[in-house]
Design brief:
With 366 residues, this protein is of the alpha/beta class. The protein contains 13 helices and 17 strands. The strands form four sheets. The chain has a seven-stranded parallel beta sheet with strand order 5-2-1-8-9-10-11, sandwiched between helices. The protein has a six-stranded parallel beta sheet with strand order 14-13-12-15-16-17, sandwiched between helices. The chain has a two-stranded antiparallel sheet with strand order 3-4.
Length: 366
């Protein structure tokens, strides 16, 4: 079974573990098409972190219109697909994206079975040409993969009648995302937030919650975004001065160590008219590291955490502060939540589990 996966997300080295696991199957010949770099608006460049695939092949292909999520496309993709002649083509993008239409258009000439990957979880109708791309993808896909439960429902609402599987795009490598060998010092108590500094990610709510909490509760921020300047100014003043560090983006391989440096991880996402939290991969990374998690109830977060962490109403700064304070005060409770989170991550969200679920989809398409 020749599988071709086309994905800009595979610039991250840790995500390639899923490919390695899929490619270990004796009946699988796996090839990935990845870009040399993805440009994320307001954040910057995410360069390709992996260079030497182990048991699969990889083509590094430049993108045109890089940084435009719905209108980027792959240069020379048609010739590559024709040369590969895959049995299964997995376009790791939304059904309404130009890149998905491009991949499907060329792959249909090879008689490959096709699947796409949808994260979108906010109900809307797409204008032309995106509505055309979506209808084309639905018409020719043998399977749809949804990253969350709301995305599955939206795919159905938009008219897709074929099989759908709900599978996270990538899992965590349990051999890398492990608990710290020794407990952290009790003071200061450090909460973490690693990601885009944007209003939709709720970083300002986290800072507002910290202002209500004891001075020995600190915060480690890693990231960049539209709010970088505002965050820098705010953490330089009382009552946050000296309690919050702001650091630049780190490679994905450094994330386990970063997770192990905090007592709790917070994802305080806020739903907007055009977006709600689609998954929150950082949550399963923290959980796998034995770090207790706190998340808002935006989008998929409650499904990811379930009962293995704390969930608060999005935008409720007082409730967020209370959740942090609860973990700060009760070490036994913190340990209980940490253990529950790690068990949930190992049970549902490892790279091995995610790889096997994707393999089941590919085999069902033959």
């Amino acid at each position: 079974m020749k599988i071709l996966i086309i994905s800009k997300a595979l610039t991250a080295a840790t995500y390639h573990r899923k490919l390695e696991l899929i490619a270990t199957e004796p009946d699988v010949e796996l090839t990935a098409i990845v870009p040399p770099m993805w440009f994320e608006p307001s954040v910057g460049e995410y360069p390709l972190e992996v260079q030497t695939p182990r048991n699969y092949r990889m083509h590094v292909v430049p993108l045109a219109h890089n940084g435009h999520h719905h209108t980027f496309w792959w240069q020379g993709l048609g010739k590559l697909i024709a040369a590969e002649q895959p049995d299964i083509l997995h376009a790791d993008e939304e059904a309404f994206n130009l890149a998905t239409f491009q991949a499907f258009w060329h792959a249909r000439k090879t008689q490959a079975k096709l699947c796409f990957y949808n994260w979108a979880d906010v109900a809307r109708r797409y204008p032309p040409p995106f509505s055309f791309f979506e209808r084309y993808s639905y018409r020719h896909a043998a399977h749809a993969i949804a990253g969350n439960h709301l995305a599955k429902q939206l795919i159905r609402d938009h008219g897709y009648t074929g099989p759908i599987s709900v599978i996270p795009q990538f899992g965590v490598d349990e051999a890398i995302f492990t608990p710290a060998p020794e407990p952290l010092p009790a003071k200061p108590f450090v909460v973490g937030f690693f990601g885009r500094l944007m209003r939709s990610k709720g970083v300002l709510d986290l800072l507002a919650a910290l202002e209500r909490l004891p001075s020995d509760i600190h915060c480690r921020l890693i990231g960049k975004g539209d709010l970088s300047n505002e965050v820098e100014q705010r953490i330089a003043k009382a009552p946050l001065a000296g309690r919050v560090t702001l650091e630049p983006l780190i490679p994905s391989s450094a994330m386990p160590e970063a997770m192990r440096s905090v007592h709790a991880y917070v994802l305080p996402s806020r739903t907007t008219p055009n977006w709600k939290e689609q998954f929150g991969r950082v949550l399963i990374e923290a959980m796998a590291c034995g770090v207790p998690v706190i998340g808002s109830n935006s989008g998929e977060i409650p499904h990811v955490i379930d009962t293995a962490g704390l969930v608060f109403p999005e935008g409720d700064v007082a409730a967020l502060a209370e959740a942090i304070h609860k973990l700060y005060l009760d070490q036994d409770y913190r340990q209980t939540i940490a253990q529950a989170g790690r068990q949930r991550a190992l049970r549902h969200y490892t790279q091995t589990s995610i790889a096997q679920q994707h393999l089941a989809v590919y085999r069902s398409m033959r």
